[in-house]
């Protein structure tokens, strides 16, 4: 299940990408000016390189000034040709900005919605593991004298996995979202043969005389926690040496999901809750988890943070600058600047979220995503900003427990 902190992280990442992209858009606009004054090699008249160079420099300076003031200053040295070049560069820059804004907003929504497909894929992975064990059980041994112990293949008959295999809602969801491990069968085999099959906890489960429903649940809970969603680094001691290893499935998911560090916790929680909700004798009561209890509300929340942070950037930066003491706005880290702007937007436009909650949440994000000193810096600045906005009546909270905008 999505939580608001994860949504804030997603918006922060989208905004950070957007703010970074502006540098590229600015460079593209400058290149347009340089290309505008390139000599025409098809002209019969020899190019005046000095004039072209001078016009390029004048246009670049005019564009820089126009970028800051949004006005193309007229002057003796700014010819009509230079004005045309600058106007085209400004138009190109603004078009690219708007394109990037839409692009990162679309990716933001797609990325959040994509979490549901990853949730389904993990449930499908558990089913694939059981199928692999069943295939191993049914395969005839190469050595005729080898005796197979049927009990060793318990995972193939795990009651919870069998329930998932037979659940129509899950199977339809897997088909609808085109979820399959067919192209990653080697991953499934490696997970089972190199990791799970040699795990003492799995071996203990495998060697039980008979597995109860609780045993079946416990082994899946263990597999999910320790093998599918392991910690980033596995550390152990071997022959007196400390050994560190990137877990196999962590590496697999990280290579396919750039935001795996943030997504991992939410997905693990969703999968574990789903397994816990399985009651074999009451199949009608089982429901796949929704990505959100109220997706319309959550979508509105992230779009408000994203759109308003961009639309009101100038005003928000003025607010931040007004509260900086002994510090210059242009020296702030982009991450801190982004988080501070988002916090101001949330305080002003999310009436049901208490101010204290907003401040605490963005202080935590600064702790995890910015510099070591950012947490204290962001905390102090937001306290001061919140007090000013409340005094000016710009923060209006509504709802139970939000008296006095607290």
TrEMBL record:
MF (Gene Ontology): RNA binding
Keyword Aminoacyl-tRNA synthetase: no
One term under GO cellular component: cytosol
Keywords of this entry: RNA-binding, Transcription, Transcription antitermination, Transcription regulation
Methyltransferase keyword on record: no
Family membership: Belongs to the NusB family.
Free-text function comment from the UniProt entry: Involved in transcription antitermination. Required for transcription of ribosomal RNA (rRNA) genes. Binds specifically to the boxA antiterminator sequence of the ribosomal RNA (rrn) operons.
Protein name: Transcription antitermination protein NusB
Species name: Thermonema lapsum
Phylogenetic placement of the source organism: Bacteria, Pseudomonadati, Bacteroidota, Cytophagia, Cytophagales
